Amino acid sequence: MNLFGAMEVSGSALQAERIRAEVVAANMANAETTRTANGGPYQRQHVVFTSMAPQQSFASQLMAQSGGSGGSDSETGGVRVSAVVADQGGPLRRYDPGHPDADKDGYVSYPDINPLSEMVDLMGATRAYGLNSSAVQAEKSMVSASLDILK
After folding, report:
1. Amino acid 8: pLDDT
2. Residue 117: which of 7, 13, 31 has the closest Cα?
């Protein structure tokens, strides 16, 4: 894999982690939302990542088919968000008869969102984003050093 392929992999990870952080922020913002457009409480969202298959250039595929070494210079992969899915767990029921969304027994359905686990997930997304950002910076400095050598 060349340096630009490594930048593409890190770039795809930056985009995926940004989406993950946005979903976690939406979960935290809606932790007390008892009524949505669908009529029930907000449902926690999860991000599903999938790997992107490496793509080979025509030349490397031709070399592989003809029995050559089939260099992997242009192979890149990465990660992408394949889906944002709703949590299938049920809501938390709290007794609050004065709440406008209380049922006939006085219970209100709240989203099953734990702020602590959301913060841990946000910290993971933030650290992964930072690490991929550092990788892009290192790759940029390697390209810059390579160009300085060629001067």
Report:
1. 87
2. 31
